[in-house]
Amino acid sequence: MIGLGTYAFFWQHSDLVDEPLSLIGAFEATKALGVELFQICDYAPLEAMDDRELADAAAAARDLGLTIELGTKGVEPDRLAGFLDLAARFGARLVRSMLHSADTRPTLAQAEEWLRAALPAYEASGVELALETYEQVATADLLSLIERIGSPRLGVCLDPANVVARLERPRDCVEVTAALVKNVHVKDFAFARQPGWVGFTYGGAPMGDGLHDYEHLLQTVRPRELGVNEIVEHWLSWQGDAETTVRTERDWTRTTVEYLRSHS
Q1: Where are the domains of the chain?
Q2: Which of 96, 109, 201, 230 is the Cys-Cys partner for 71 at CB 3.0 to 4.6 Å?
Q3: pTM
Q4: Nearest Cα to Cα of residue 228 among 238, 218, 241, 214
């Protein structure tokens, strides 16, 4: 299923715009595009919501017919338990996370211990835990960790854009993770010369205009056949003013959704 994630609304949620979009506003914008899946991912206000606010958000998603997934950072047992509780509130069947958070940088051994402590509750609840590929952890190490634990509810959130910063090739990342992918983050990416020709900037691009060989991902991972959801997000830099940035962000979202719908 194609979905939108919080990172597709990064600037619209930002305090840099006059009227930041609420979470329910993002749900409504998602439904307006004919999309029925939303991943609340690294959305800081979620953890500050009280019971009433959470109930209202969950009810809004249900009323709009949206399936919800969740995303956080870190694998401390208390954090993962908290997001399992949030998953129950939203009826979410998947939580995406990363080994590291702003506060914790566990060794692989520590991360394994924490995951082994947290996973029985996920297994009992039938909720998937997807660990994202990213530059702070070698993809080979992430896969080795997942394979050692061997839980049917533990797998990969595939984001091949992230690993470039570790000098890994996106195509290689796609191929080695394919058998364990439970979620895909969809965005295009490209290099551009910096002013003065003194280096490059690595950033986002409209879907289909960058370096991401998404056809290769579709053929290798087969998300549509296997029921793996594809979540739209962006690396969009500030465009000079709020109006232009928000308009561009919306255009990129529309472009990506149309791209995914036209590629099978």
Answers
A1: 2-262
A2: 96
A3: 0.96
A4: 218
Q: Hey, what amino acid is at 175? A: E
CA 207, CA 261: separation in Å to the nearest integer?
A: 12
- Whose tokens are 């099978």? That residue is 264
Dump pLDDT digits (tens) for 51-91.
999 999 999 999 999 999 999 999 999 999 999 999 999 99
> What pLDDT does 264 receive?
74
Q: Which DSSP letter does residue 196 get?
A: G
Name the region of 227 (left: φ>0; alpha: ψ -120 to 50; beta: rest).
Answer: left
The helix/strand/coil state of 131 is strand
Half-sphere exposure of 49 (CA within 13 A, CB side): 20
Cite the DSSP H helix spans in 178-234.
214-221, 223-226
Q: Which helix (H) or strand (E) holds 261?
A: helix 242-262
Cα 115 from Cα 203, distance rounded (Å): 32
Mean pLDDT along residues 109-123: 98
Q: Give helix then strand counts, H and E, for the chain.
A: 10, 10
Contact 94, 229 (CB under 8 A): yes
| Rounded-to-integer distance, Cα 246 and Cα 254, Å | 12
The C-alpha atoms of residue 70 and residue 96 are separated, in whole angstroms, by: 6
The CATH number corresponding to 2-262 among 3.40.50.620, 3.20.20.150, 3.30.200.20, 3.40.50.1820 equals 3.20.20.150
Quote the longest CA-to-CA distance of the chain: 56
